[in-house]
Amino acid sequence: EEDTEALLPPSPMTSARDAGRRGGLWTVLQIGKEACKEHAALAYSLAKDEAIGSIMVAVWLVTLGGNMHNPVLSFFYLGLGMKAEAIGWAGVITTLGQLVFGPIYGYILDRHSAYLAVVLSLFSCGFACLARGLATSAEAVYLAAAIMSLGGMTFETMALATVSRYAPPHRRAMVVAGFLLQVKLLGILGRALYPAWNALVIDVFHVYDDMTRYRLAIGLCITPCLVGFAGLSMQWRTFKRIEDKARSEQSSDGESAAVE
Q1: Distance between CA atoms of residues 25 and 243, nearest Å
Q2: What is the residue-wise DSSP string for 103-142?
Q3: Which one, of 158, 137, 153, lies nearest residue 94 by Cα?
Q4: How far is the C-alpha of 145 from the C-alpha of 97, rounded, in Å?
Q5: CB-hemisphere CA count at 13 Å for 138?
Q6: Where are the alpha helices (DSSP H) in the chain?
Q7: pLDDT, tens digit, 9 for 90 and up, residues 101-158
Q8: Could you tell me the sign of the dihedral formed by the alpha carbons of 151, 157, 159, 162, in that order?
């Protein structure tokens, strides 16, 4: 029997609902497109900013490299003969160090220098990854975890605090949101790139030993941390001038408020 309802034109209510759905989807796509443009422009402006540009570049590189080596860590530890309990103790060491040194880094950031806190955390991150990549035993992994606990795990937090401090007040919320979004996206991208990196090492460089490939992958964390540390250290005078200027402006604002 022929379906007569299929031959009838759609009711006005159905047409309106379908149009609303199409319009809603189009609106969402347009909002997403504009948001992508805005965040791309934000990333470009942050990279060019004198106060926070170098820190943002370091954040991008460390996040990308760190997440590219994350997929191999458990296999690397197992290759060293570590059991699940031993791997867990490495995490305990790092966490305890964070609890101890996190407030110290906060004190350095608030009372002394935000850039000093960032540089110290990068230093810890780089040498902890180096010690991890050279490790040949569980004890060496514990040493790397102890070095990482000296501040390497706080790098992202210190960088975010510094970026939010020196971002223009009228753009601070956007800068913080952009920072968090960029870190998340680069983290996903880093993990997704590991298979391509592994294929490159095998097919181009003919590295077939698993542990050697794991150590090379850990090098993706070492390099951006140490390069970022060296780059920020060489710009110390610029950062000191920016911080001195910010302190003088805060003092002037405080004196003006006291007079009023």
Answers
A1: 46
A2: HHHHHHHHHT-HHHHHHHHHHHHHHHHHHHHH--SHHHHH
A3: 153
A4: 9
A5: 13
A6: 4-7, 12-48, 53-69, 73-79, 84-111, 114-134, 138-149, 155-166, 172-203, 210-234, 236-259
A7: 989 998 999 888 999 999 999 999 999 999 999 999 999 999 999 999 998 788 999 9
A8: negative
- Mean pLDDT over 13-24 rounds to 53
Identity at 85, one-letter amino acid code: E
pTM: 0.81
Alpha carbons within 13 A on the beta-carbon side of 55? 30
Structure tokens at 213: 């490939």
- For 64-115, what is each residue's pLDDT tens digit? 999 999 999 999 999 999 999 999 999 999 999 989 998 999 899 988 899 9
Pair 76, 211: CB distance under 8 Å? yes
| Chain-centre distance for alpha carbon 156 | 6
Residue entry with tokens 């047409």: 15
Token pair of 136 as six digits: 């040949």
| CA neighbor of 56 nearest in space, from 124, 156, 130 | 156
Q: What one-character-per-residue DSSP string does 226-254 give?
A: HHHHHHHHHTHHHHHHHHHHHHHHHHHHH
Q: Quickly tell me which residue has 């990549």 as its tokens.
A: 133
